[in-house]
Amino acid sequence: MARRRRNHGSGLDAWPGYVDALSTLLMVITFVLLVFVLAQAFLSVALSKRQQVLEQLNHQMAELSQMLGLEQAKNKSLELRVATLGTTLGTLTSERDTLRGQLDSAQKLTTDQAAQVATLDQQLDQLRAQMTAIAQALDISQKTLADRDAKIADLGNKLNIALADRVNELKRYRSEFFGKLSEVLKNRPGIRVVGDRFVFQSEVLFPPGSAELSPQGTVELDKFATALRDISKEIPADLPWILRVDGHADHDPISSTRFASNWELSAARAISVVKLLIARGIPANRLAATGFADTQPLDAGHTAEAYAKNRRIEMRLTDR
Asked: Which residues form the OmpA-like domain (predicted)?
């Protein structure tokens, strides 16, 4: 009886250690979750500020472009006025020269002729003054245009940098997308990564000559959709990402009575995949279905193995 009491007492003594270990584990998990939430919050704030800067740059470029158009119209008006004044100046100069020629030949001017010559000289002086003022205004306008061109070029560079940041941001999420989905889909027959896309062999998803998903294909796409849905929550809503689903067929002419050619079959299979992803919670505006028939084979051979490789569904995360 004494031995039983000692064993029972020993079990009670171990219980506080378990409680401490569980408490420590809970604190560690809470701390990790807190760090993750704070990191997500900081990232959201940074992305929001970057989007505001991008919108401001676009607004400034629009304003400068509008002002530049007005300035160019003003320049054209000034240039037209200069041309008109130049023509008038030439006409008046010709008239004055004619009168002076008459003076040289007659050696004597009437009162009216002398007054006419004086008036022409006065008009010529006024025209020269106007042309000088217009030329100065044109120079100022051209300098203003040059300054605005420089500002627009600078804003264009800033906008390109901002857009490049957005592209790099999408590339980062694309890398995470591939990493997580590769982990989910690894070691599964008929599913592989080729370059920047996931490739599902048609036999994994569809029966031969059909665009209806098989039970096995539905299971595989359910796993894909779950991973994609989780990953898409981490991508900022303002990033213009889209998952493109491409259907591909082999060179063998289709014998099914439902589809007229491999074009219809490949497109119908891509649409079937998109519909399932939508049903599993992926937003429709983030999906696109495309059919390529047999125009983009992975293997140019005419063997059964080559044909099997070419019958596929490809998924690629890209931007709109």
From this structure: 194-320
